[in-house]
Write a structure and sequence with these properties.
Elements: E1 20-23, E2 28-31, E3 37-42, H1 53-71, E4 75-82, H2 87-96, H3 100-117, E5 125-128, H4 129-145, E6 149-152, E7 155-158, H5 174-183, E8 200-204, E9 220-222, H6 224-235, E10 240-246, H7 250-265, E11 271-277, E12 280-282, E13 285-286, H8 297-302, H9 307-315, E14 323-324, H10 327-344, E15 348-349, H11 353-364, H12 369-385, E16 390-391, H13 393-405
Parallel strand pairs: 3-4, 3-10, 4-5, 10-11, 12-14
Antiparallel strand pairs: 1-2, 6-7, 7-8, 8-9, 12-13, 15-16
Bound molecules: 5'-O-(N-(L-cysteinyl)-sulfamoyl)adenosine and zinc ion.
């Protein structure tokens, strides 16, 4: 699958800082030490509806990770998937009388447009579940051959008991796991399962549903977690730096992914850091396609909202916080964008070097974007109130805001 065009990332004077980031698995901040090529996998959309502000907030967090790494002169090897076949997509296509593949294609195209408008840097490999099937099948076969999988009526399940590390991403107890499994695509009540939370690796073909040749597995389609494991291992290998997504992916998705990879390779963890963004709510409830309480990025753009203002609205919240989208949040971002644009529109201003360092330090400290915005605010106020004589300082600020925060002034 093709991704979307990259916006340019201006080079900045001085030295970038290494990222310290909160890791869900160890429960604390860790100092990442990627090699010259940093490796990140970010879980992509299930394309049955348009990109909403919650999605955008999560992708914004991982875009910042990339930007911090690029500022340290590293290359970034970024992989993202598209879950272009799964129950919710098929159900929505069915409900609306649409062809599931056409729906997926159309919503993925819109996602690309939204990401481009928001200046999110594209993945190097953008891979759909369907195109990953030839790589998924041998992994499921291997899990079965290793005794880590079992069959119920043609469906193949992963046995969580095969992984001694199971539970070490989410640290949840069995009751909480069972609850979340039921909420998030699992089938804990199906008779015959060894453990209620065991997830499906391969679903045997159902009448009226798409299916693919699964070799010795028979016709069917892949489970959700093995999809991301197959794509990540194929393009990044074990022990990559960050696996990212929203906090609703901690369990079961990232826990199961780590388990599949451990059973396949004998290594743990698949990612050095498991990084999760908070949930964005609307009217007091998590924004979600299934509930329909959504603010779409494309709808805001259609209403003439500047994508840079949307981006500033996202950046005003720490990525790990749960927060609520309101008209005021957007209005504050529009106002801030106006101030910043006015401040960089003059040829000279207050010195910019210290500001660049403050933005760097804020982001290196667990992606503290609100602190970075506050630093730019202070510079803009100085500029507004007393100006400055540093020729070119506004240009440096503008480049730093673009390179490190993805906001074009
Ligand atoms: N295709 C899978 C991942 S492999 C999936 O979860 N797709 S999704 O379309 O449901 O979500 C895409 C990303 O947006 C995920 O990282 C998810 O955690 C995140 N996300 C979904 N809703 C919200 C929300 N309300 N706030 C913040 N992030 C969200
Ligand atoms: Zn995923």
């Amino acid at each position: 699958m093709h991704a979307w065009p990259a916006s340019e990332v201006p080079a900045l004077p001085g030295q970038g800082r290494d990222l310290r980031i909160h890791d869900t698995a160890t429960g604390g901040p860790i100092a990442l030490d990627p090699g010259p090529v940093a490796r990140i996998y970010v879980c992509g959309i299930t394309p049955y509806d348009a990109t909403h502000i919650g999605h955008a907030a999560t992708y914004n967090a991982f875009d910042l990770v990339q930007r911090v790494w690029l500022d340290t002169k590293r290359q970034v090897h970024y992989v993202q998937n598209v879950t272009d076949v799964d129950d919710p997509l098929l159900e929505r296509a069915d409900r609306d009388g649409l062809d599931w593949a056409a729906l997926a294609e159309q919503e993925t195209a819109l996602f690309r447009e939204d990401m481009t408008a928001l200046r999110m840097l594209p993945p190097r490999h953008y891979i759909g579940a369907v195109e990953a099937i030839p790589g998924i099948v041998p992994l499921v076969e291997r899990l079965r051959d290793l005794g880590a999988a079992y069959e119920i009526d043609g469906d193949i399940y992963f046995s969580v008991e095969s992984d001694p590390h199971f539970g070490q991403v989410s640290h949840l107890d069995a009751a909480a796991m069972r609850l979340l499994s039921a909420e998030r695509g699992g089938d804990p009540d199906r008779p015959g399962k060894k453990n209620p939370v065991d997830p499906m690796l391969w679903m045997a073909a159902r009448d009226g549903e798409p299916s693919w040749d699964g070799g010795s597995l028979g016709r069917g389609r892949p489970g959700w977690h093995i999809e991301c494991v197959a794509i990540a291992l194929d393009h990044l290998g074990m022990g990559f730096d960050v696996q990212g997504g929203g906090s609703d992916l901690v369990f079961p998705h990232h826990e199961m992914g780590a388990s599949h990879a451990q059973a396949l390779t004998g290594e743990f963890p698949m990612a050095k850091a498991y990084v999760h963004a908070g949930m964005v709510a609307l009217h007091g409830e998590k924004m979600s396609k299934s509930k329909g309480n959504l603010v779409f990025v494309s709808a805001l753009r259609r209403d003439g909202v500047d994508p840079a203002a949307i981006r500033l609205a996202l950046l005003a919240h720490h990525y790990r916080a749960d927060w609520e989208w309101t008209d005021q949040v957007l209005q504050d971002a529009v106002t801030r964008l106006g101030h910043w644009r006015a401040a960089v529109s003059r040829p000279d201003g207050p010195p910019a070097e210290a500001l660049v360092e403050e933005i760097r330090e804020a982001l290196a400290n667990d992606l503290d974007a609100p602190a970075a915005l506050a630093a730019v605010d202070r510079w803009a106020v100085l500029q507004e109130e007393s100006g400055g004589t540093d020729t070119g300082a506004p240009g440096v600020v503008s480049r730093a805001v673009d390179a490190l925060l993805g906001v074009a002034l």
